[in-house]
Write a structure and sequence with these properties.
Elements: H1 11-42, H2 61-83
């Protein structure tokens, strides 16, 4: 289809074509937006198609306690260094 023969020959026809194509594009986007809006309101848009079983893993409480204790020790060491900094002699003196 050769569009060059239709475009540029009559400015009124060009404007009419431009307005009709623009209206069609706006209507398509409007239809798409309304359909997405309705799906979101119904809750269908974010639903998964596959039904997955919920799996809950138990936490190893001993490992968690050991990790928390290690971080508490690091915090104490940091606090000790912050309030009682190490003293080094300047070697350039």
């Amino acid at each position: 289809m050769n569009f060059r023969k239709y475009l540029g020959s009559d400015p009124y026809q060009d404007w009419r074509t431009l307005v009709i194509v623009s209206c069609i594009v706006v209507l398509v986007f409007l239809f798409f937006s309304v359909s997405i809006f309705r799906q979101v309101n119904k809750g269908e848009f974010f639903m998964s198609l596959k039904k997955e079983e919920v799996r809950v893993d138990s936490i190893d409480r001993t490992a968690l306690k050991n990790t928390l204790d290690a971080f508490a020790n690091k915090k104490l060491l940091f606090q000790n260094l912050r309030f009682h900094p190490l003293h080094f002699d300047d070697p350039s003196l």
